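We modelled the chain as a single entity of 621 amino acids. Its sequence is:
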Amino acid sequence: MGLSSALATAMSGLRSTQAALSIISSNVANAQTPGYVAQTPNQIEVASGGFGSTVQTVGVSRQLDLFVQNQLRTETSAGGYANQVANILTQLQSVYGTPGGSGTLETALNNFTTALQSLSNSPNSQSAQSVALSAAQTLAQSLNTTTKGIQTLRSNVNQDIGNSATQANAAISQIADLNSRLQGTDPSDPLAATLQDQRDNAINTLAKYVDIRVVNDSTNGVSVFTNSGIQLVGAGLASQFTFSSPGSLDATSLYNTDPTKNGVGQLNLRLSNGVSLDVVANNLLGSGQIAADLKLRDQTLVQAQTQVDQLAATMSSALSDKTTAGTAVAGPPSGFDVPTSGVLPGNTINLTYTDSSNVQRQVKIVNVADPTALPLQNAVGANPTYVGVNFSLGMASVVTQLNSALGGAHLQFANPSGSTLRVTDDGTSQATVNAASATTTVQTLASGNAQLPVFTDGGTALYTGAITGTGSQMTGLAGRISVNPALVNDPTKLSTYSTSPATPAGDSTRPDFLFAQLTSTKFSYSPTTGLGSAAQPFQGTVSSYLQQFISQQGNASTLATQLKQGQSVIVSTLQQKFNSTAGVNMDSEMSNLIQVQNTYAANAHIMSVVQSMMQTLLQAK
């Protein structure tokens, strides 16, 4: 090898070591920079005119495990989902309060029943009446406060959807912009490596909010899809989330696929071709913080509200509703006559019959005065079956409506006189009517019955369970419930159930009834509360129902917290695994630095020797 070849080799070595030192310096400087991927120089051997070879640095390589990176993004989405659910359910537990603590629903209900028990012992005591009235007001206020807390959480979650959509849009735009800048570039270009780091960071940010799948292409670009298959980013393409919010939500603010009826924020995904998709209706997101917020807003917290609304409804009806058994009709055909004169919208006629398969079935005929709410929709296998009938159209119409709705069950309806409804079998021996009754709401304080409308809906309106085209009266009742103003003005009616004739002194009939209804009488609860099923609804006392759903919510919060912690471990483990390849290892960098320094010294020594030899040759001439 000639001196010139040796000099060229040493020079190329120095240039390579200079490039390597620059990369090592960058790695060390960015060791704590989030998302920075360690780089290594790409060096190739270049032939040098047949006399040896030189080394040349041709860019850099990013050291990362793509499989682990994809897994990390998947688990990051799951982590975002788990964190949000756990955080909100923890806050929901704060709304309910500590079991047994003051100010909780459970304590308020117990105080009311205790006050009624004391009133039963001293029914004419003004002090006992005042205490019971005050306890009833506290219970109503506790339900109001619980509703306010739940709806505040829903409003906060709804606002978070908008904030998360904004953050997701920023990440999508950044990915698309970096895609354009990286399109067609050499992946080994140091500038390209920096841009790829930035793009990866943007993708990781997006993964927190949306579950995604990333596909690399041959032009150094990436396409980002949701796991449901909708493209968010592509070659020159970028989708965007759009969100419109009505502001604060209340119990009647519910999601609807019809935008004109939707009472919550509308989240759409506008694709690059201009098409706009309803994220909820099309089930576009399965994980990530946005998906968690949507489920919390439209399902989890709505169910929590339904649970307290059911408590308010059952409690109100338990104290004010009177069930009158029908009068047997010998027949044939046999059945019952049921009075309907006091049936208000939401009140029911209750039937029990045995079908041809010897299966006992229950039917509740509901007075529905709003024709837009008809027909009522029953869940598959629902027991009892609900049939809506408009009683305001007159008994002839009621009979026609019922024969049309239940004739297939071999039941027959008639109107023998006045407002009496007769239900019998149809004479084919395919059905046997076992029982029939009417459940009506007592409207006055001294009706001569033990029943008492202690609670009202937002003031003077009675709670009857009325159903209209906009929904059930039960929806949001817990936020509107209050003690009957007439009872507030006259607490003696907690004991006095008749004025003509007057209730006997010391008669505890009414306090005994009110206490029993809240503590020992069992009721059936809607499966929309998350307890029981359509075929087998949860049944229990008011107190046991309250304990059941509070316990259910506590268990859900505990499980969510455990899932959050477990998911955090998974993400942390994957991050460590990813960093073991992609992160900067200071020990390795120091080792590389020493190696480069030695290489630099060797090349510098060769140049020094070549210089000395050239000087010697020149002097020899």
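As a brief sanity check on the tokenised model: Residues 66 and 578 are 9 Å apart (CA to CA). The first helix runs from residue 3 to 29.
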